[in-house]
Amino acid sequence: MYELFEHTADLGLRATAPDLDTLFVDIATCLFTAIVEDVMAVRPVQDVRIEIEGADTEYLLVDWLQRLLYHCEADHLIFSRFDVQVTDTGLIGTAWGEPFDPARHALSHEVKAITYHELKVKRTADGWLAEVIVDI
């Protein structure tokens, strides 16, 4: 489960999930829900593989979202489907989407950056919680 929340001049992303892999999938979906008005209209026809080394889950989360945002900005790709495996030494993820098409995709927010401000990835009684603030 994921949701957006208001945060002063920025926007917050929040996700809860039973495990880390699903948490990283849900927070990525939340990011693109913030970027595209109808993320379900994005066809998963092109894939991008992302590998990140590191053991700190908070830094892995930020790096994961930064890489997705990079592909969005540099390659003009928007994503709607994700697969992630988080390990003790990093993560391996795949994002599926398509090139942005203004005739088919309406943008919602321009996400400029993923921030470390109030970053949170923690285990809860029900699984995992992640919160990250994005600069819009």
Structure notes:
With 136 residues, the chain is of the alpha+beta class. The chain has a single domain, classed as Archease, Possible Chaperone, Chain: A, domain 1, CATH 3.55.10. Helices cover 26% and strands 43% of the residues. It has two helices and eight strands; from the N terminus they run ββαβαβββββ. Strands 1, 2, 6, 7 and 8 form a five-stranded antiparallel β-sheet that branches. Strand 7 and strand 8 (127-135) form a beta hairpin. Helix 1 (20-35) packs parallel to helix 2. The protein is globular, with a radius of gyration of 14 Å. It starts with a strand and ends with a strand. The model has no long low-confidence stretch (mean pLDDT 94).
Principal-axis shape = globular
Query: Rg, please?
Result: 14 Å
Low-confidence stretches: none
N-to-C SSE string, H for helix and E for strand? EEHEHEEEEE
Q: How many E-type strands?
A: 8
Q: Note the beta-strand portion.
A: 35-45%
The helical percent reads 25-40%
CATH level 1 name = Alpha Beta
- Can you count the helices? 2
Question: Could you name the CATH homologous superfamily?
Answer: Archease domain
CATH architecture: 3-Layer(bab) Sandwich
- Say what the CATH topology is: Archease, Possible Chaperone, Chain: A, domain 1
Largest sheet: 5 strands, antiparallel
What is the SS-derived class? alpha+beta
Short description, anyone?
The chain is an alpha+beta fold. The protein is built from two helices and eight strands, in the order ββαβαβββββ.
Helices and strands, with pairings:
Layout: E1 2-7, E2 10-17, H1 20-35, E3 46-53, H2 57-75, E4 77-87, E5 90-99, E6 113-114, E7 120-124, E8 127-135
Antiparallel strand pairs: 1-2, 2-8, 3-5, 4-5, 6-8, 7-8
